[in-house]
Amino acid sequence: MSELLAPRRMVELEVDGQPVRVFEGSTILDACRRLEIDTPTLCYGETLEPANVCRVCVVELEGSRVLVPSCSRKAEAGMKVHTDSERVRLSRKLVLELLASSVDLSTTPVAAGYLERYDAEPGRFGPPAPPSDDRDRARTGHHEAPDGRTAATVQQPVKVDNELYVRDYAKCILCYRCVDACGEQHQNTFAIAVAGRGFDARISTELATPLPESACVYCGNCIEVCPTGALVFRSEHELRAAGDWREEEQTVTETTCPYCGVGCSLELHVQSNRIVKVTSPADHDITLGNLCIKGRFGFSHVQD
To answer: What are the residues whose beta carbons fall under 8 Å from the beta carbon of 81, sequence distance 6 or more?
Structure first.
C-alpha cells in the first residue's frame, strides 16, 4: 500500500534551451506541451497508447544518432531536446510531403497548417491524391501524372455499406488509431486490422467482408479517434457530398445519454436545427470519448 501512495518523482530536462520539470514516466511531448511548444502530431491520440507511425512529432535529442518520436520517448533527467532544428524541420517536411502526395488530406483539420508551416511541396513526389469527386475512378495501385510520370497511391472507392458511418480509406494515413480503439485498448471487438503490405497496406475487416457481416458492433469509437475524416458519420458524408456541411455554423450541446444508467456524456453537434453527429468528451474519466451504438447513433428519433 505504501508503494501505491508514494509520490511521483519529477525529472528535469531542457527543451529548446528552456528547463522544464515533468513527472517521471511523462514523454518529451508532455514536456513540450508544458512549455507550450507547438509540436505537430497526427497519429497521436490522447486516449490511446502511442503507435509511433506518422513521425511528424520527431525531435532532435542530443546524444541520439536518430531523431526520436516525442509522443512515446520517455523524458529523462538531463535530456537536451531541440524541436525546431534544421534536421527536425527537414524530416517533418519530407513526411508531410510523402503523406500529402499519396493521401487525400482535405478533411484533416491540421494538415493545411502543417504543410504551410514546413514549406512542404507534395508535388515533388507526383500529383496530389484525387479529391473525393474523382474517387469512383480511383483504384489501388498507380495512376499516371499529367507529365507522364507514374505516382504511387493507395486509393479505394468510398465504402458506403451501412446506414451509420462511411469509410473513405483514400483519406487514411494508417495511424492505427481505429485499430487500437476497436481492439484491446478500448472496445475489444477486433473487427478491423491492417491488411496488405507496402503501398497495398490498408485498414480492412477480416477477409475484406462488408461491414454489416463483420464483427463490428457499430460503437463508432473508430470514428471518434480518426484524425483525417477517413471514418465519418453517414450524415456528415452526405452533407459534405452535397456541399452543405457548415461546421462553422454548428452548435455543440452537452447532455447525458438517456439510454441506460451509466450516464455517458454526449456532445450533440447541431446544424440547421438538426443533429448531424454525436461525440463524447475525450477527457471524461469513465468513457474516454467512447460510446455504444445507442449513444453514438441513436439520435434520429429526436428529428422524426
So the answer is: 13, 14, 15, 16, 28, 31, 32, 59, 60, 61, 62, 70
pLDDT (tens digit per residue) in 200-225: 889 999 999 999 999 999 999 999 99
Query: β-strand 231-233 against 10-15: which pairing, if any?
Result: unpaired
What is each CA distance from 4 to 7, 8, 15, in whole angstroms?
9, 10, 30
Q: How many domains does the chain have?
A: 3
Q: Identify which of 175, 174, 135, 126 has the alpha carbon closest to the alpha carbon of residue 155.
A: 135
Helix (H) or strand (E) holding 23: strand 18-23
Res 135: pLDDT? 42
CA torsion angle 203 234 270 106 (round to 10):
50
Residue 267 has pLDDT above 80, yes or no: yes
pLDDT band at 4 (very low <50, low <70, confident <90, very high): low
| Domain final position from 62, 84, 106 | 84
CATH number at residue 272: 2.20.25.90
CA distance 97 to 189: 34
Contacts for 129 with CB less than 8 Å, ≥ 6 apart: 100, 101, 102, 103, 104, 105, 153, 155, 170
- Give the separation between CA 114 and CA 31, rounded to whole angstroms: 21
Q: 68 is in which domain, residue-wise?
A: 10-84
- Spell out where 31-170 has E strands: 58-61, 68-69, 80-82, 140-144, 150-154, 165-167
Q: Does pTM surpass 0.90?
A: no
CB atoms within 10 A of CB 274: 13
Domain boundary among 154, 186, 202: 154
Q: Which residues pair with residue 81 across a beta bridge?
A: 15, 61
Residues 236 and 288 in one domain: yes
Label residue 141 left, alpha or beta by phi (over 0 means left) and psi (-120 to 50 means alpha): left
The pLDDT value given to residue 200: 83
